[in-house]
Amino acid sequence: MSARPGTTAPPPPAGPVVERVETHAFRVPVDGPGGIEQDGTLDWSATTLVLVRVWSAGTAGLGYTYGDRSVAAFLESTLAEAVRGADALAPAALWQRCDGLLRNAGRPGTGAMALSALDIALWDLKSRLLGLPLVHLLPAWHREVPVYGSGGFTNYPLGRLVEQLAGWVEQGIPRVKLKTSRSPAHDPARLTAVRRAIGDAPELMADANGALSGKQALYWAGRLAEEWGVGWFEEPVSSDDARGLALLRERGPAGLDIAAGEYVYLLRDVTDLIEVVDCLQADVTRCGGITGLLRIGGLSAARHIDVSAHCAPAVSAHAFCAVPRLRHLEYFHDHVRVEGLLFDGVPQPAAGVVRPDTGRPGLGLEVRWADAEPWRVHGERPV
Asked: Which of 4, 122, 195, 331 is the most buried (most CB within 10 A)?
């Protein structure tokens, strides 16, 4: 009987090995009213980026995720040792090794985010060692990724809401999304103001962040489509409510796509959701990194379901070029802002798409350490 894959020791590396792993975390306050941003179910005052760098042969690859700073400590205590001394050119094999370590430590949530950040760093490292942009190392189906502007928080004054979404349209982004369902009675005025500001042509999208019950969401689905021409209703009910999502997909307006998936951590999460949504979302910084995303991309293609990239645009611009049924990427206000503050080399949208930088190796990102330091909540600045 042959051994289960991953249970036998891998052959010794023939090339460069992973020499060290370092972790950092930066907590950046939001720029919302009164230092707060809101959606249908959550308030937050800051966004934390957990950064990992993996070194080999004098070269560092970087990856990151968005989550609590405890993700950095988890990565150090559970995963870092598993990749030290291992083949720096074999990120998928190292993903499998690390995934096995999460069985008892906790695979969903924190474990998956730590693995995602590490996996992205390993792919970035391999690309840099080979002198290739990451998109050229991946099995790319696309050269660019369409984007939609995302923000429109429920606590924005009407003027700021309109200014933000109309601003994206003026920049050439033909689709925009606002948060809804925190106070449903206020949503008609918000939606009307946005639709008037952007005109009839741009696609208008809504995200309830799981704030509604199934029948409430069904009521709003009809109004969204009929009154404001909304074509995308994201998490109308909780992502955990498969029955509610199925109700919306089966009985909602034909022109309104039901979407969910930003909290996919495991492949099993995808197999559950893919049955009850019109478009699957995936977050490369949560779903197992590049290696995990490639598996999701194959599964979605087999089931003839599009995938929309959730946030983290600087990584997603490369990663989602390797997803066959790519629809678009969420160009999310908070992540755009944080990545612009912490990194050089962040891709910028043009004519409604972002294109990965093929003139630099890896992701093409470099950390702006001096700028990042005031927000540090974990790790030490490299010397």
From this structure: 122
